[in-house]
Design a protein that fits this description.
- It is built from 13 helices and 17 strands.
- The protein is an alpha+beta fold.
- The protein folds into three domains: about 170 residues, Uridine Diphospho-n-acetylenolpyruvylglucosamine Reductase, domain 3, CATH 3.30.465.10; about 80 residues, Alpha-Beta Plaits (2-Layer Sandwich); about 80 residues, Alpha-Beta Plaits.
- A five-stranded antiparallel β-sheet has the order 3-4-8-6-7.
- The protein is globular, with a radius of gyration of 21 Å.
C-alpha cells in the first residue's frame, strides 16, 4: 500500500480492510511477533501543525520524523524532555523514527527517572480505531477527563488499539549546561548502591546508568548550579570511588549502542535493587547495561539459544514483579515466544476487553503483543 497522507484516507483504508493490517510509520521498530497483513503506511501523514513555544506545546501529525520535531524545538531552545530512544542502530533498520511511533511504544530514555515517560508529556491524540472511526481525546493543555484516558491507553499500545494520526505534546526548555560524573570499577550491586544514593540526594540527577563497569551520573541546569551539585555529589559518593567529570554520550545508553552487534536483545524493567540479581542469572554470553538507576536493564546475547534465554529471563523477571521484552531476535524465535511479558490473568482480561472495544475485528497489528 502506498503512503497515506490524510487522516481521512487512513480511516477509509481501515474501514474497507478485508483482513489484518500491519501498521507502519518510520519502520524503525520491528519489535513484537511478526505481523502478517497488508501494510498500512502512515509515514506520509507528516508535519508540525501547531507550535506554541510560550505555552510549551507542540502538535504534530503522527508520521512526522522525531528529528524534525527536535529541530523545530531546538530553534526555540526547547526539547522533548523524555529523551525518546532510537533503535535503528540496534535493530539494523534505516527508516526515520516518527513521533507516532514514539507515543505508540512509549519510547522513553535516560531522563525518565527525573522528567517522566513519553506518556507523561502526551496531552492529546487523534487516532483511527479498528472500525475506521476517527477518535479524539485530550487537547493542548493538561486536564482531567472522564471515561477512558485514551491518551495514556494509546501510549505503549503498539498500534493494537488504533492508528495514531496526530499527537499533542508538552515540551520543556533546554538547559544551559550539562555534565556527567563517572565512577569506575563498580560491580552491579555497588553500582546500584551508588546510583540510588545519587538519585536519593537533593542534587537532581537526570541520568543514572552503568556502562561497561562504569557508573554515569548526569547533571543538567544552569552552569553554576551544575558545578555546585557536581561537587556535592563527589563528596556524597566518595566511598564508591573518585567521581570524575567525563564527556559522556548519553545516546550510548539511550539507544543501547554497546549491544548493537548482539543477536538477541532484551529490555527488562525491575526494581533497581533486583537488577544485580537478574544480571547474575543471565548466561556468560550476555552483555548488560543498566539505566534508570538500575531499574532498566538492556541484555544482549551473541549466539546461543535465545529462545531458552528468553523463557528463563521472563520467568525470573516475573518472579520479581517486573517484565522483559525481546527487542531484537531472529524472526522464528519472535514468532514462537511471548515477546512481551505475559500479563497477569486480570490484566490480560482487561486488555482483551479494551481491544474488543477499539478493534472489534482484530485487524490492527494482530498478534504483535500476543502471549
Amino acid at each position: 500500500m502506498s503512503k497515506l497522507k490524510t487522516e481521512e484516507a487512513i480511516a477509509d483504508a481501515v474501514a474497507s480492510a478485508q483482513g489484518p493490517l500491519a501498521i507502519r510509520g518510520g519502520g524503525t521498530r520491528s519489535v513484537g511477533r511478526p505481523v502478517v497483513g497488508e501494510v498500512l503506511d502512515v509515514s506520509g501523514l507528516s508535519g508540525v501543525t501547531l507550535y506554541e513555544p510560550g505555552a510549551l506545546t507542540i502538535v504534530a501529525q503522527a508520521g512526522t520524523p522525531v528529528a524534525e520535531i527536535e529541530a523545530t524545538l531546538a530553534a526555540e531552545n526547547q526539547r522533548l524532555a523524555f529523551e525518546p530512544y532510537d533503535l535503528t542502530g540496534l535493530l539494523g533498520t534505516s527508516g526515520a523514527s516518527t513521533i507516532g511511533g514514539v507515543i505508540a511504544t512509549n519510547a522513553s530514555g535516560p531522563r525518565r527517572i527525573m522528567a517522566g515517560a513519553a506518556r507523561d508529556f502526551a496531552l492529546g491524540v487523534r487516532f483511527v480505531d479498528g472500525a475506521g472511526r476517527v477518535v479524539k481525546n485530550g487537547g493542548r493543555v493538561m486536564k482531567n477527563v472522564t471515561g477512558y484516558d485514551l491518551v495514556k491507553l494509546m501510549c505503549g499500545s503498539w498500534g493494537t488499539l488504533g492508528v495514531l494520526t496526530e499527537v499533542s505534546l508538552k515540551v520543556l526548555p533546554s538547559v544551559e549546561a550539562e555534565t556527567t560524573l563517572a565512577i569506575d570499577g563498580l560491580d552491579p550491586t555497588r553500582a546500584v548502591a551508588a546510583m540510588s544514593r545519587a538519585l536519593g540526594s537533593p542534587f537532581e540527577v537526570s541520568g543514572a546508568a552503568w556502562v561497561d563497569g562504569q557508573v554515569w551520573l548526569r547533571l543538567e541546569g544552569f552552569e553554576a548550579s551544575v558545578a555546585y551539585r557536581a561537587g556535592m555529589l563527589r563528596s556524597l559518593l566518595s566511598e564508591f570511588g573518585d567521581a570524575a567529570e567525563v564527556n559522556a554520550d548519553w545516546a550510548t545508553v539511550r539507544d543501547a549502542k554497546p549491544l548493537q552487534q548482539a543477536d538477541a536483545v532484551w529490555r527488562v524493567s525491575v526494581k533497581p535493587g533486583d537488577g544485580p540479581a537478574v544480571i547474575a542469572d543471565v548466561p556468560d554470553a550476555c552483555e548488560t547495561l543498566m539505566d534508570w538507576g538500575g531499574g532498566l536493564l538492556w541484555i544482549g546475547q551473541t549466539g546461543g539459544g535465545s529462545a531458552a534465554t528468553h523463557e528463563r529471563l521472563q520467568a525470573r523477571v516475573a518472579a520479581l514483579g517486573g517484565h522483559a521484552t525481546l527487542i531484537k531476535g531472529p524472526e522464528d524465535v519472535r514468532a514462537a515466544v511471548p515477546v512481551f511479558q505475559p500479563e497477569a490473568p486480570g490484566v490480560a482480561a482487561l486488555t482483551a476487553a479494551l481491544r474488543q472495544r477499539f478493534d472489534p475485528q482484530g485487524i490492527l497489528n494482530p498478534g504483535l503483543m500476543a502471549a
